[in-house]
Amino acid sequence: MEKLKQKAKERVEQKTDEGMDKALDHAENKIGDAAKKKEEEKKGGKKQKQEKEDKQPQAGTETANFKSYSHYDFIPGEEIVYAEDFSQDVVGELPLKWGSNNRGETQTIGGQPGKWMRAYQAGRFVSPYIKKLPENFTAEFDLVMNFTAPEKSWLFPEFSWKLVNMPAGDEKARKYLTESNGLTTVKMSIAPEEEGPSTIYLRTAQSDDKEYFINTPKEIKGFKNYFGKLVHVAVWVQKERLRLWINGEKIYDIPQAIPAKTSFNRFELETASSNYEDEQVGYFVSNIKFAQGAPDMRSKLITEGKLVTTGILFDVNSDKIKAESFGVLQEIAKVLKENATVNVKIVGHTDSDGEDNRNMELSKRRAAAVKQALTTQFGIEATRMETDGKGETQAVADNNTKEGKAQNRRVEFIKL
Q1: By the 8 A CB rule, do 235 and 140 touch?
Q2: The pTM of the whole model exceeds 0.90
Q3: Quick one: average pLDDT of 118-132?
Q4: CATH (one of 2.40.30.10, 3.40.50.300, 2.30.110.20, 3.30.1330.60) for 297-415
């Protein structure tokens, strides 16, 4: 109940904020009650601006299913070292911990939970310093791209994400944003199309600004329209090898895409410019997560007797498993099939957000949902699995940090 009150308060504040999210306004305008109509009239001059903003479409609410991720073999790293969902940032302002050379805002999106960073055109946006990443790590984030021009007259501007090796210190980040690169980077870009297939590029540059590797552009078949839809991006780095997935489709698996002995410690987003107005082009990013160390699931479960994973993801306050959990579930199912005499207890855990009793109940439902998925999607006998939930009572990390909360939202498999 407290969460509901807080959410209502948050929306009221957003309606009077100049940086309020256009998509959320569009959804709220459907309410059409007299009280809201009176409030809009009181806003006077702002009403005309709001009517223009309401034309921006909402991000799609359709979520991918397990079938669409049936070839997804991405498995996130074992230890989360950086997580960001912008929940602490003020709507209408650039996220406090990020650096930029242009305009960026924290916003909400109708049809999608949480907060998002909106990156405007011709901008570069650099994350806070991440501790030196090892040779083996994974990176994930969610992306929504909106396009509200009345017609497509020019190419939609590219959107890029980079792994960057940068000296520590905020002053280094500011210098990097205003001068030529001079750093080792791995850059992945998408050139989205409204009708035809989108194109993905991979480019690597070393610190001498010479290009080390450029791939042949690759079209993403089967994804003819990204606009207004949730796009999940996953990257897996193993020394010089780089693998990239977009919405479950493996785009690249390149053995020598990264310069030898290169480490990374920043994440950057980059937006190109175009002839479109800023309000006609929208890039929204959230749920960023970096993790290190590939888990050996077979050894953890069979030899050590306990496997812990943060790679099984759920919708917010729900037991609905996200499709991008497919790779982890598939690997666990494989271990169970190869060890037919092994039975397990599945235990769900949550972070400390929300009421204790509701978290306890949610963790039990999530464990039951995992059991059901393993049975119905992967053919593991239900009699081999028990379920339980511990809510927030057995935290393994600090619930006062984003990384700690992400580590506490986990599922354990205990060998019986």
Answers
A1: yes
A2: no
A3: 91
A4: 3.30.1330.60
